[in-house]
Design brief:
Blueprint lengths: L1 H31 L15 H12 L5 H14 L5 E6 L2 E6 L2 H10 L4 E2 L2 H11 L8 H11 L5 H4 L3 H12 L12 E2 H18 L5 H6 L9 H17 L10 H22 L16 H6 L2 H10 L5 E6 L3 E7 L5 E5 L4 E5 H4 L3 H4 L33 H18 E6 L10 E3 L3 E3 L4 E6 L4
Helix pairs in contact: 5-11, 8-9, 8-17, 11-12
Length: about 450
């Protein structure tokens, strides 16, 4: 009994001493590295308010704007434009930044000080497994090396594959006697086109979602695209719940997990059982010259600036370290980052900063790219050693699809909500329009 009493009494005291000693050591490190304090976003002790904000914005389909609103709140509190601050979410203290210098440090100049971390694996491993999107260190290097041959110049320039799927997508946009299509949700068509192309590009067999939708039941509709899309939403929710990620676990999520892995495992099994002597000796390379000649980089750059596919990301410190700026009264001192502390960076906010892009930063103006060459303030595909391995594939495919669309149609007009107003954004692991993108298209009479 006396031993239990001693343990019960001593444990809180020892824990308190440990906490005080850790704080003292961190304070010493911060002084040694000339770090200034970083302002804190207002909230409750556990950080439940920030979770509620994120969930409310998810429901309102405006998740990328959460950080922008917090920057505005902090700027008003600090009487200066505050790009770096700290907030607490379910007990986890997170540093948030939209400063290009800090982002460059996270992704490049201090790459070895940061990793994806356990929080990323907690959120994504259930759906994506252990691979390039969840791994760190040597395992990540091996995963990237395995994927790299898939994205060689010859591979991404082989637009014969894309052309076949584009032609199926075109059948989903029939015109009447006047040359106009009916009101068409073009976002759904593009989603199917992306899934059909990606599954054939990566697995060697297309899911054929577009053809199935047009077949009136003749081709069975595979649930994989919808399940994978829904699985990404669950992953985003798990990330928002930090260490309580395991709460996001229900009958639907378990069914999605089982179905997605079963779909991919089929191709893994086929590859493992294939005859290595019967690999194809070559393939037809068809780089559509018109796509190269007419692809407007200004247009694509501006779309990706205003609506980056990944509006925010984060890293975790693997050791006690610093960020270059954001601390102190003026926000110009280095910021101390403890080992294990996550740092969130918002490309969405960084891409819309008026001090970086001008007073018209929220406006769609492709001509701005005639005047500048972007640095770390523009990161549509991340940067540093973990820059998106599929960047050129995505740009090539997007340019090609746009060209084929404009070859056929000479007028595209929005219908309903698509015509005007703030664009809602459906945020999971990536960003997409939150509403149907409904348009009417007119076929060029000269075709």
């Amino acid at each position: 009994m006396s031993t239990l009493l001693f343990v019960a009494t001593a444990s809180p005291i020892l824990y308190l001493l440990y906490v005080l000693l850790s704080r003292w050591q961190h304070a010493q490190n911060a002084r040694k590295w000339n770090c200034g304090s970083v302002p804190s976003y207002p909230g409750d002790l556990l950080g439940i308010n920030t979770l509620k904000e994120a969930l409310a914005m998810d429901k309102a389909r405006q998740v990328p704007t959460v950080t922008r609103r917090r920057v505005e709140t902090m700027s008003a509190r600090e009487n200066r434009y505050t790009t770096t601050f700290q907030f607490r979410q379910l007990g986890t203290d997170v540093i948030s930044t939209c400063d290009p210098k800090n982002v460059q440090a996270l992704l490049a100049t201090q790459f070895k000080d940061f990793e994806l971390g356990q929080s990323r694996r907690n959120a994504l491993h259930w759906l994506l497994g252990r691979g390039i999107f969840t791994a760190d260190g040597d395992h990540w290097s091996r995963s990237r090396a395995l994927l790299r041959p898939q994205f060689t110049r010859d591979q991404i320039s082989d637009l014969d594959l894309e052309e076949r799927h584009v032609q199926v997508a075109m059948k989903a946009m029939p015109v009447d006697a006047t040359g106009w299509t009916p009101a068409t949700d073009i976002q759904t068509i593009f989603f199917r086109l992306t899934m059909d192309t990606a599954t054939e590009f990566l697995f060697g067999e297309s899911v054929q979602s577009q053809a199935a939708a047009l077949s009136n039941g003749a081709i069975p509709q595979d649930d994989f695209p919808a399940q994978f899309d829904r699985g990404q939403w669950y992953s985003a929710q798990r990330a928002r719940f930090e260490k309580l990620y395991w709460i996001i676990n229900n009958k639907e999520s378990r069914a999605i997990n089982k179905a997605v892995h079963a779909y991919v495992d089929r191709f893994v099994t086929a590859a493992l059982n294939s005859d290595p002597e019967k690999k194809p000796t070559g393939h037809y390379v068809f780089l559509h010259g018109l796509a190269e000649a007419t692809r407007d980089p200004n247009f694509l750059n501006e779309v990706l600036r205003l609506y980056p596919i990944v509006p925010g990301n984060r890293r975790t410190a693997v050791r006690n370290t610093t960020l270059p700026t954001g601390g102190g009264p003026a926000g110009t001192d280095p910021v101390y980052v403890k080992k294990g502390q996550p740092v969130f960076y918002s490309t969405y906010v960084m891409h819309r900063r008026p001090d970086l892009w001008g007073a018209d930063a929220d406006e769609f103006r492709p001509d701005r790219w005639n005047e500048r060459k972007a640095g770390w303030e523009y990161l549509p595909f991340n940067g540093g050693p973990r820059i998106c391995i599929g960047q050129q594939f995505a740009l090539t495919e997007t340019g090609y699809v746009l060209v084929r669309l404009l070859q056929r149609f000479d007028v595209i007009e929005g219908v309903g909500k698509t015509k005007e107003g703030e664009i809602n954004m459906q945020m999971s692991l990536t960003n997409a329009p939150g509403d149907n993108v409904t348009v009417r298209l007119h076929e060029d009479a000269s075709n």
